[in-house]
DNA sequence: GCCGTTTTCGGCCCGACTGTTTTCAGTCG
């Protein structure tokens, strides 16, 4: 069994950490870290790039790293890494991962006290041994004790839905303060990343002190990580870290650009700024003269908006969702940025549940809620019979339901349309849960995996291919079945599935539920590039879930999706004609 | 280690905050 992209990415991340602890040239270990980040986001298996001979076309992958990737794929091992592991105990990387402990401290603890595990670090700290070390003191020691305790509270990244909710609550509180002129969420929430490391909030004000005082004094604060005149950081009781920066109005553009990230995007932007004769930071563009000297403050160029920042360095504004240094800078330079889909483009929801299976609302209630949200048509797609816990429908009940759908459709008038479909299970053995003669009577069929998600790649892929090749299946719902942070993706051969989707003209769903966001943007982008149709559906079981659509839009935008390729943007007549043209 | 319409060698972004320092290193984003 070949190593997965993520496993190889993890190895490069470990190599980067180990080299950093060893004091290796920073550009060298940063190269490994960059490679690690890139490999974790690829839409195809690394072996596919090897087969194509396109491995070194991936940004940040040169000769040395591509050779190591090949060695790992061929032998499951890497000699370079094994040698490194013999020099640096791997458990030290967990120590480096503790907030407030970086490579230098980790090495110090290891060399001076022979500490190689978090447990032994905790013991040493509680015995007061760390404070004796050079550059350490009682405060640093106490911080380390607190950070180790925080490890159990904060388990890695937070799903965007949870993070955004927490961020919105704090944002509302800040906006209500008299000193705050304006406040905005920046960082990875603004970029629409699936999971969030920490929350970044930006506030406009000339009077930061009372804002900072309020921020660190909020009831939900577990501990204060730092507090200064322009930047403060807190950890919430949930373990989530929130950073607040306060800046005057005229710096809002540079600050928003800066704190929206991503880091890689910003590095590129600042390089471009340098080429235009500016050093760019969160405060201003600072001109540099021909001799390479930065001019004094009187020459600084301030930008109140992000558009200003990009314009001053000769670029069009780039949507936050694209800012990952994944080709958006090149596209901006070439004037070929995509015309990204927006929430206003979405006219339909093609995957919704009702009380007929496990939803909480009737068909009529879902239809009215959808109309209130600006939709012109929906498809009711309750579960099929295999999904017993969800009260899935067999053929007989489906046809009963169809009568009610048709009746509601009549009641809703001419400007709103309710169609009848199903979310049919793709069974564990690869069969469909409903017969062809039942499927043929439905307007739109979503086929989904719900069970047997841990099957091997061959079986999972066979099931999906069976569904794609069924003439009645119009759309594959939440393809990998992942639940972010709780259930891993099924092991799908995306190349094979995409090929079949293209050939059979089957739509692939971006499920907007923030617990799913499936397809993930990296795969949706590849599907979109290949010319596969996409749908953005809420999979709503309730009104509240209908309002999760923005997460699906963010994901689609991260996939560079344009309205034309997303069938929810099609007017009803066009959509209806298209499904009629299919079996 | 990566990369190239200013380079195949010599570059590779930038600042805030903290704690331990007598002016700065370490960490973080």
In short:
With 583 residues, the chain is an alpha/beta fold.
Structure write-up:
The protein is α/β, with parallel strands linked by helices and 583 residues long. The protein has 4 domains: 5-153, Orthogonal Bundle (DNA polymerase, domain 1); 158-247, Beta Polymerase, domain 2 (2-Layer Sandwich), CATH 3.30.460; 269-333, 2-Layer Sandwich (Beta Polymerase, domain 3), CATH 3.30.210; 343-582, Metal-dependent hydrolases (TIM Barrel). The strands form 4 sheets. Strands 10-11-12-13-14-15-16 form a 7-stranded parallel β-sheet. It has a 5-stranded mixed β-sheet with strand order 2-4-7-6-5, sandwiched between helices. A hairpin with a 4-residue loop joins strand 6 and strand 7. The longest helix is centred in the first third of the chain and has 17 residues, at 5-21. It starts with a helix and ends with a helix. The structure holds one DNA strand of 29 nucleotides.
């Amino acid at each position: 069994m070949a190593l997965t992209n993520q496993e190889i990415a993890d190895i490069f991340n470990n190599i980067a950490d180990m080299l950093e602890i060893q004091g290796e040239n920073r550009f060298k270990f940063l190269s490994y870290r960059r490679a690690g980040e890139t490999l974790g986001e690829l839409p195809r298996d690394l072996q596919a790039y090897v087969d194509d001979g396109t491995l070194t076309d991936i940004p940040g992958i040169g000769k040395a790293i591509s050779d190591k990737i090949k060695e790992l794929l061929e032998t499951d091992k890497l000699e370079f890494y094994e040698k490194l592991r013999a020099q640096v105990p791997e458990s030290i990387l967990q120590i480096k991962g503790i907030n407030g402990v970086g490579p230098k401290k980790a090495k110090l603890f290891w060399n001076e006290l022979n500490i190689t595990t978090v447990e032994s670090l905790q013991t040493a700290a509680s015995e007061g041994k760390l404070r004796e070390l050079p550059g350490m003191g009682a405060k640093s020691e106490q911080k380390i004790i607190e950070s180790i305790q925080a490890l159990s509270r904060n388990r890695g990244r937070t799903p965007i839905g949870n993070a955004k909710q927490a961020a919105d609550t704090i944002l509302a509180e800040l906006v209500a303060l008299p000193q705050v002129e304006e406040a905005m969420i920046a960082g990875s929430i603004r970029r629409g990343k699936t999971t969030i490391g920490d929350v970044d909030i930006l506030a406009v004000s000339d009077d930061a002190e009372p804002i900072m005082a309020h921020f660190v004094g909020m009831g939900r604060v577990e501990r204060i990580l730092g507090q200064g005149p322009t930047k403060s950081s807190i950890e919430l009781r949930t373990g989530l870290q929130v950073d607040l920066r306060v800046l005057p109005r005229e710096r809002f553009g540079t600050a928003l650009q800066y704190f929206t990230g991503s880091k890689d995007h910003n590095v590129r932007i600042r390089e471009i700024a340098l080429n235009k004769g500016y050093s760019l930071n969160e405060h201003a563009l600072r001109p540099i003269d021909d001799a390479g000297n930065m001019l004094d403050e009187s020459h600084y160029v301030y930008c109140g908006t992000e558009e200003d920042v990009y314009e001053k360095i000769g670029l069009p504004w780039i949507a936050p969702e694209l800012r990952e240094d994944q080709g958006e800078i090149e596209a901006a330079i070439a004037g070929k940025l995509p015309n990204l889909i927006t929430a206003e483009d979405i006219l339909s929801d093609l995957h919704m549940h009702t009380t007929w299976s496990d939803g909480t609302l009737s068909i009529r209630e879902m239809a009215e809620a959808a109309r209130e949200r600006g939709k012109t048509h929906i498809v009711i797609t309750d579960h099929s019979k295999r999904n017993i816990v969800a009260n899935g429908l067999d053929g007989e009940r489906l046809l009963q339901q169809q009568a009610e759908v048709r009746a509601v459709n009549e009641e809703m008038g001419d400007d709103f349309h309710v169609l009848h479909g199903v979310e049919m299970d793709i069974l564990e053995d690869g069969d469909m849960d409903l017969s062809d003669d039942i499927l043929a009577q439905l307007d739109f069929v979503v086929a989904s995996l719900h069970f047997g998600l841990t099957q091997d790649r061959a079986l999972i892929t066979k099931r999906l291919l069976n569904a794609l090749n069924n003439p009645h299946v119009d759309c594959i719902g939440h393809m990998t079945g992942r639940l972010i942070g709780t259930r891993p993706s099924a092991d799908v051969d995306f190349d094979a599935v995409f090929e079949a989707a293209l050939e059979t003209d089957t739509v692939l769903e971006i499920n907007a539920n923030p617990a799913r966001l499936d397809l993930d943007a990296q795969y949706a982008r590849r599907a979109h590039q290949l010319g596969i149709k996409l749908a953005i559906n809420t999979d709503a079981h309730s009104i509240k879930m209908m309002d999760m659509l923005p997460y699906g839009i963010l994901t689609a935008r991260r996939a560079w999706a344009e309205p034309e390729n997303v069938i929810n943007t099609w007017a009803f007549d066009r959509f209806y004609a298209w499904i009629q043209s299919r079996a």
